[in-house]
Amino acid sequence: xxxxxxxxxxxxxxxKKDYYCDNCFMLNTNHKxxxxxxxxxxxxxxxxxxxxLSGGVxxxxxxxxxxxxxxxxxxxxxxxxxxxIHLYDDDCRCLAESLIKxxxxxxxxxxxxxxxxxxNSNYELPQANTLQDFSENERQVFKDxxxxxxxxxxxxxxxxIKRNLLxxxxxxLSCSVIFTAETTNTLxxxxxxxxAIGRGSQVQYDIGFCDNRDDKVKIIRPIKDISNEELxxxxxxxxxxxxxxxxxxxxxxxxxxxxFVSELQENxxxxxxxxxxxxxxxxxxxxxxxxxxxxxxxxxxxxxSMKLSAFEATNVSxxxxxxxxQSNPPFEKTSDIVHRLENNNxxxxxxxxxxxxxxxxSRNHSEINVHKLPNQLQKALSAE
Length: 384
Ligand SMILES: [Zn+2]
Ligand SMILES: [Zn+2]
Hints:
Its main location: cytoplasm. It is found in: Cytoplasm. Belongs to the CTU2/NCS2 family. This is Cytoplasmic tRNA 2-thiolation protein 2. Helix content is 47%, strand content 9%. By secondary structure, the chain is α/β, with parallel strands linked by helices. The protein has two domains: 45-281, HUPs (Rossmann fold, 3-Layer(aba) Sandwich); 303-382, no CATH class. The strands form two sheets. The chain has a six-stranded mixed beta sheet, sandwiched between helices. Strands 1-2 form a two-stranded antiparallel sheet. β4, α3 (93-104) and β5 form a beta-alpha-beta unit. The protein is globular, with a radius of gyration of 23 Å. Bound molecules: zinc ion (ZN) (2 copies). Residues 3, 5-6, 8, 20-21, 23-24 line the site of one zinc ion.
């Protein structure tokens, strides 16, 4: 069998049926990346773009794709000014060092930021290509906060912290666009986790092409149409070395879902692509507007427009069980329940919900030792 594009001998087989030579495969993958950006028209010429690197497979390919695209000399040159950033914590110092070397090969500078900056909201840019110097105490405060919550909540909260830091540093660097390199596998896991923990209404932001929750900075996922199979071929053809594997906390909802998805994918090749395509169809993404936003994840707190939210489900079951205890007659109509719900926010299990926090963040909040949260956040959450 020969390459389906140029008829030279095949070297790459995709989805067990499509044959390519290295050359056509690389052209095709580069095209997918550019088509994704072109189709969605988010970039203006010479835009400052911040690129978040984790060092993983997706990140390694994105780095190479960007380097290739901005090095072109023809009309296809990608006209952006890239700034690279890597977020790390004490458990992955070696990884951060490897990542600096990875960027060095391309002659790119990278800002390496310790996650603990979240605690004091000090978003000063560190010196490029060096690990940020942090006192033992500051690191410990961050660790204590993360350790004060159960693994599933910690995984979820960490994603929100990283998103928050990326947005803040993008503002520092005058970037209105951020590229992140989630692979379809990561996105499939995030989608199912989101649904399971009551972030269904945020699926489009967390899994779709563009997260525009922030007024000034858009987060874009330009390689979300490139499958893991393709990423792995890309890595081996260009002999790249990823420096990191995903580190979801074990014994958590996310680790179970991750195992479930990857085992299913083994036998049913369409699993992940089906899950990701479904994400595109769920939820209605609105342009960011003036509504109140969650103080942790910036999602809209516009509850009236959500007809069937996890929050309401929790409240319904709570009200019904309370009613039973008081031996009152059961609800007769759904409209009764809706009416009661609308007037019943005060008795909610989550006192801060809809005022400061979305449902997902309220759940996390109820499982965190709140005194360990960053001072500024504590203050904002207790303001009247
Ligand atoms: Zn070919
Ligand atoms: Zn939230």
